[in-house]
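Regression report. Comparing outputs from two consecutive submissions.

Submission 1:
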Amino acid sequence: MTLTAPALSLQHPREIAAWLQELVERETLVRLIAPSGPTLELLPVQVRPELHNWDLRLPGLTLSAPPWLLQGPVHAVAHQGGVQMDFELPAERSLVETGGLPALRVALPSELRRHQRRQTFRVQPASLHHPRLLMPRVGALPLRVRTFDLSAGGIALHWPDSCEKPAPGALLTGLELEMGLEHRIPVTLQVQHVRVEREHVRVGCTFVTLPPEGERQLALYLNQLQRRQRNLPR
């Protein structure tokens, strides 16, 4: 997977637990990797935010695991569509039985990194609170520009007819990304491509600057929309 967006670092226990719970709900395997080379894929089965730990199902029926899995550094990687998550397993690990089956119980990681591929997720145009980009105008209120899609790496804009088309490579500054009714994030964009389509001009941009809190809000917003779209009837 080609990752073009910078990694988003999550360090709040509640946010980390929410993403691990997503792995449980979607039955996503987690690949555990030792520095010396051995790997093992385990299925997460339960997250306990209140106890600050989570369980991964061990293969077989006996309560045993390779020594490298119980002590020493272990790197964990999981993929969900275009999103990759990775983190280091804390030292607090033990073997337990859950529902009569062997499992590895691990403390929640202190940091979880998310990487998202450009344009892996598209916002539905019919969304009630469709993201908009606010562009400053001299002597007037900001222009609210419609968006086609939004990801952790960038955004595609429905360029307004009243504005001159930007050139690829141009920087767009002084902007705000409006997500829903509550969040506005200051952003700087760089134009990647300009396409004149049948009834509109589509301008694809990448984020050049995005404040850390803005990255967090964007990640949570995208996750909420992804959850909502999965629940829509097909």
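Submission 2:
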Amino acid sequence: MASALMDPDVRGVAFVRLRVGLGDLLCGAPALRAVRRARPDLRITLVTWAEMAPVVRRMRACVDELLPFPGHPGIPERPPRAEELPGFWRRAAERGFDLAVQSYGDNPVAGEVTERMGARLVAGFAVAGWRPPDPALGLAYPREAHEVWRHLRLVRRLGVPAAAGADALEFPSTPADHREYRGLCGRHGLRPGGYAVVHPGATCASRRWPADRFARVADALARRGLRVVLGGVPAERGLTAAVAGEMREPATDLAGRTTLGGYALLLRGARLLVGNDTGAAHLAAAVGAPSVTVFLSGDPVRWAHPGPRHRVARSDVGCSPCRHLTCPIDFRCASRVSVDDVVGHVEALIG
């Protein structure tokens, strides 16, 4: 039954995502949107961590419910809360899913979690160590594809076609987001199109280009007549302060001072974003903001967004991409991306 998602007897489906990255959910959303368009009657549940609820709420057009995941041994995103697993399995069984889809990626434990959801049918990415009980419901994990297309290929395997423009990212805004953005502009004297956002943070050290280099790029932006806004989450305030301290030109530091929705509109109003391979780059793509993304340990084949409005700065060192959270050698993938490289990409976007 390779067309499982189009089977009228399949009325409830669980997509077992189990990821905590903003980019992970944004890049998986086009596949869910395709499923919704093909099967508007289908009840779609997204299984992921409770902390992702603010993002999942933005996906209400294609997700009916978030089923919070408490963690499981072998799923590395967060330490498992083993005492909560029995209740999680019970809640999954109570929903009576007709289909559960392993959409985590390359991890056999995610397949085991998917099988334990109690669904009548199990599908998903087939990886070393796990494949669905019915091989026709599996897709060999497509490592060569962009993250968005990995998921679109998966749902296509299950019967859902990908229409033109199916790979576009979205991040819906709310009236509260717009009020917040107007307030930010008013308080800080920002004019849409008159500022650039510099986002120097990333979740792991191996994806963070040095702060002093971001500062020099930010100064170059300021010399081109743009206001510089430093962005990030609350935990990155020290990093943005370090960038500001290295700059010769003034900057407005808004790290940790916006909501996610407010930050999305801040990006949408920016002339461009300059940052690392992290969630902000995906958010910029979702709201239509041009971007220059510095790729270090990350894989641009998987994560860089296509098109002339998104540019990639990276070195050609043989050890990148890699899975190290901290570089175990000399961090050459970072040292060999020069300030001039990044400024050159900026100039190609804004002239």
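Expected: both submissions complete independently.
Actual: both completed, but the second showed a warning that disappeared on reload.
Relevant detail on submission 2: The domain at 175-350 is CATH 3.40.50.2000 (Rossmann fold).
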